[in-house]
């Protein structure tokens, strides 16, 4: 049987003997987009108005219903207006700043990243002449009591990136002259908003109700309407910002006629969340859920000396985006802790915001379950102790054949030591890998049985993982690695597109004599009449091996009109049938049927020199449509599968019209009889040599290495699935 390019789907999980806390049922603690409501499934979208105009009565009524339910649940006064606007909360805030600010001075109060963005808008984009900056460091509020309310005031109710909220609205006077413009994206539906203090309030669906992104919500007071109708800024106002028509409020926008085309699927999702919110007891029930979640974290903080809230004043501590500081871990250790939680599927996306002090940011909005927060905090304590005690160890990784810089950075950010260096064959044979936990290779480094055994037999050997940055692992002795307890992982997904495109390029070059034409023109010739090629359409293309790369090329081949023929004993008929392909029982049957052959198998004792004079001699030379196109073979898979000496002879006799190789039995290629034929075209193993593939290969193999060393399932394939790892996770990483 021919081993094909593996697309093994089973993932490897390292079982642990250490007592671990129970994991949260839902690990989604991101501060945006946030967790969906409990029990959510896509079935909630079954009634969405797919394919219908948002102006159709059915869709329009859904928009109106969502606005009405928003007003009801948030207890918004009857004379306030509610609308959905473009570009999420950001768009909602900026559309009001662009239309309202100018006739008065402006004060921007900010104490975290997004509020700082509104200051940048006001000072550098709008370039307002009278502007006051009221700011504070992460963890604190500015002096809100000193705000001059003759100004329009822009502020966030809750600092999503700092975990600091305004305690109440008492600092906002009822008789204010200026407008209060409030970004409440992480406060709406989880905090009590005193509407008499608010003139503009914005939020997005993706926060407290776990909705989808890109849609913003706008609530405006009668005072805001008066400003919109009395003040016309000199600056241009884009269409997606305009709320007035002929100097008056465009009330249609607040009655379902949205500014631009929305996603009705997202509206359906929002309606589902609103219905759930009502079932929870409305705003009071949602606030209670969030406060219970916050209470679970507070209980942990109160009993744990090494952790504290980033907020300095308990009255200002957010109950949604809860920000924590771990006092006895370094920034790198905190990153190790959060990475560990993510890879163990305990909590996703809980690292502090990039501008904030190193720590944790845990979302405790109403869609999160309190029992999950409690389980998470137990894991935080467990992981902290492991990181602090050194049980989560730094691994030493050697990269011998090159790797994308981004991949090396990812490994280093996970806490590993990464060294790029060449190791000679002699040093490998002498056990040089014993000092490394892992090696990352491409095709140049050979991990033979002798190399592996020499590494693992050395006293104190750390060697446990071999990672192949690419698909093929024929340069690793899998049997020896498995016997030694060394895991072998690869990156089968990354180079697919690049290899497919190169194989197609070779097929096209063969059909149209592109290399020969180029050489002739460089020699001053014009051999137009000699280079009559053929079309690929209507020709039979035979695949030896039909894994991931073969199937991707098969789709392209069908798109250009080729007939697909396959030999792959591992694939079920259902896969073959998806391509309308003809299945063959033996490689010989494929060669007899096809004028064009492409190789996508692994090199093994069974496949070495499988493509020989007998198989090539069986090719028909005439296509099903009667075209005498000759026989053509492409190999962008593995060198050594084609008997190169036999192929060179077939090129001489004309039985093989052309041969294209990206892979060779010996690399780099020295002298070869293939070069004597004008109908041979070669590339120096560049199938994966594209910017995109190199970046993907690096990212995929880095993820596989990090996960394998941590004892969790590698996102790349574990190739030797039967391996019993040399080290228990207690001796490696948690």
Poorly predicted regions are 1-18, 729-734
Q: How does the overall form come out from the CA principal axes?
A: globular
Total strands: the figure is 27
Q: State the helical fraction.
A: 25-40%
Strand count, sense and closure of the main sheet?
Answer: 7 strands, mixed
Mean pLDDT: 93
Question: What integer value in Å does the Rg equal?
Answer: 32 Å
- End-to-end Cα distance, whole Å, is 40 Å
Strand content: 5-15%
Secondary structural class: alpha/beta
- Order of strands in the sheet with most strands: 1-9-8-7-4-2-3
Report on the structure:
The chain has 734 residues and is of the alpha/beta class. It has 20 helices and 27 strands. A seven-stranded mixed beta sheet has the order 1-9-8-7-4-2-3, with helices on both faces. A seven-stranded parallel beta sheet has the order 22-21-20-23-24-25-26, sandwiched between helices. A six-stranded mixed beta sheet has the order 16-15-17-18-19-27, sandwiched between helices. Helix 9 links the parallel strand 15 and strand 16. The longest helix has 22 residues. The radius of gyration is 32 Å and the shape is globular. The two termini are 40 Å apart. The N terminus and C terminus are likely disordered.
């Amino acid at each position: 049987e021919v081993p094909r390019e593996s697309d093994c789907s089973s993932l490897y999980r390292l079982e642990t003997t250490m007592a671990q806390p129970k994991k949260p049922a839902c690990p989604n603690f991101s501060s945006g987009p946030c967790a969906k409501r409990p029990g959510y499934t896509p079935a909630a979208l079954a009634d969405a108005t797919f394919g219908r105009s948002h102006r159709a009565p059915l869709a329009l009524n859904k928009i109106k219903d969502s606005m009405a339910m928003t007003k009801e649940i948030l207890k918004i006064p009857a004379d306030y207006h509610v609308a959905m606007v473009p570009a999420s909360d950001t768009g909602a805030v900026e559309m009001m700043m662009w239309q309202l600010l100018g006739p008065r001075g402006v004060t921007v109060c900010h104490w975290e990243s997004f509020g700082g963005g509104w200051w940048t808008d006001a000072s550098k984009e709008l370039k307002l002449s009278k502007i006051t900056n009221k700011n504070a460091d992460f963890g604190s509020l500015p002096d809100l009591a000193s705000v001059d309310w003759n100004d329009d005031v822009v502020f966030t109710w809750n600092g999503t990136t700092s975990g600091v909220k305004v305690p109440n609205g008492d600092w906002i006077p009822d008789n204010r002259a200026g407008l209060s413009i409030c970004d409440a994206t992480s406060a709406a539906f989880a905090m009590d908003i005193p509407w008499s203090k608010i003139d503009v309030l914005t939020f997005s669906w993706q926060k407290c109700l776990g909705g989808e992104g890109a849609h913003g919500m706008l609530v405006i007071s009668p005072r805001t309407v008066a400003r919109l109708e009395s003040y016309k800024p000199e600056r241009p106002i884009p269409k997606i910002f305009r709320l007035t028509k002929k100097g008056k409020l465009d009330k249609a926008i607040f009655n379902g006629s949205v500014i631009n085309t929305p996603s009705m699927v997202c509206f359906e999702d929002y309606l589902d969340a609103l219905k759930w919110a009502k079932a929870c007891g409305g705003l009071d029930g949602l606030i209670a859920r969030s406060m219970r979640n916050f209470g679970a974290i507070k209980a942990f903080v109160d009993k744990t000396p090494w952790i504290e809230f980033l907020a300095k004043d308990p009255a200002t501590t957010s109950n949604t985006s809860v920000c924590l500081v771990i006092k006895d871990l370094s920034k790198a250790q905190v990153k190790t802790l959060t990475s560990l939680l993510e890879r163990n599927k305990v909590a996703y996306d809980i690292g502090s915001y990039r501008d904030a002090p190193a720590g944790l940011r845990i979302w405790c909005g109403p869609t999160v379950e309190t029992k999950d927060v409690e389980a998470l905090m137990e894991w935080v304590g467990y992981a902290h102790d492991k990181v602090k005690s050194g049980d989560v160890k730094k691994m030493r990784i050697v990269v011998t054949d090159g790797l994308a810089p981004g991949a090396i950075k990812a490994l280093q950010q996970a806490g590993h030591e990464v060294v790029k260096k060449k190791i000679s064959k002699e040093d490998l044979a002498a056990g040089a890998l014993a000092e490394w936990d892992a090696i990352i290779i491409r095709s140049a480094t050979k991990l033979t049985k002798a190399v592996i055994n020499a590494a693992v037999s050395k006293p104190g050997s750390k060697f446990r993982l071999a990672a192949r940055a690419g698909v093929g692992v024929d340069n690793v002795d899998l049997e020896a690695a498995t016997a030694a307890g060394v895991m072998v992982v690869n990156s089968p997904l990354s180079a697919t597109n690049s290899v497919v495109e190169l194989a197609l390029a070779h097929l096209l070059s063969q059909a149209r004599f592109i290399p020969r034409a180029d050489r002739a023109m460089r020699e001053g010739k014009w051999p137009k009449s000699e280079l009559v090629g053929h079309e690929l359409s209507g020709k039979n293309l035979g695949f030896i091996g039909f894994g991931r790369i073969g199937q991707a090329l098969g789709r392209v081949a069908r798109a250009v009109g080729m007939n697909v023929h396959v030999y792959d004993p591992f694939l079920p008929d259902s896969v073959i049938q998806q391509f309308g392909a003809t299945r063959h029982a033996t490689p010989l049957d494929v060669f007899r049927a096809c004028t064009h052959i492409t190789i996508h198998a692994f090199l093994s004792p069974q496949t070495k020199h499988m493509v020989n004079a007998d198989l090539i001699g069986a090719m028909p030379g005439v296509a099903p449509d009667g075209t005498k196109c000759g026989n053509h073979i492409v190999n962008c898979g593995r060198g050594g599968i084609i008997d190169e000496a036999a192929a060179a002879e077939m090129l001489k006799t004309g039985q093989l019209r052309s041969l294209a190789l990206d892979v060779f039995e010996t690399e780099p290629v020295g002298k070869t009889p293939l070069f004597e034929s004008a109908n041979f075209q070669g590339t120096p193993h560049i199938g994966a040599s594209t910017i995109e593939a190199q970046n993907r290969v690096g990212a995929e193999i880095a993820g596989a290495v990090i996960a394998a060393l941590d004892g969790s399932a590698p996102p790349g394939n574990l190739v030797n699935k039967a391996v019993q790892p040399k080290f228990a996770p207690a001796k490696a990483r948690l």
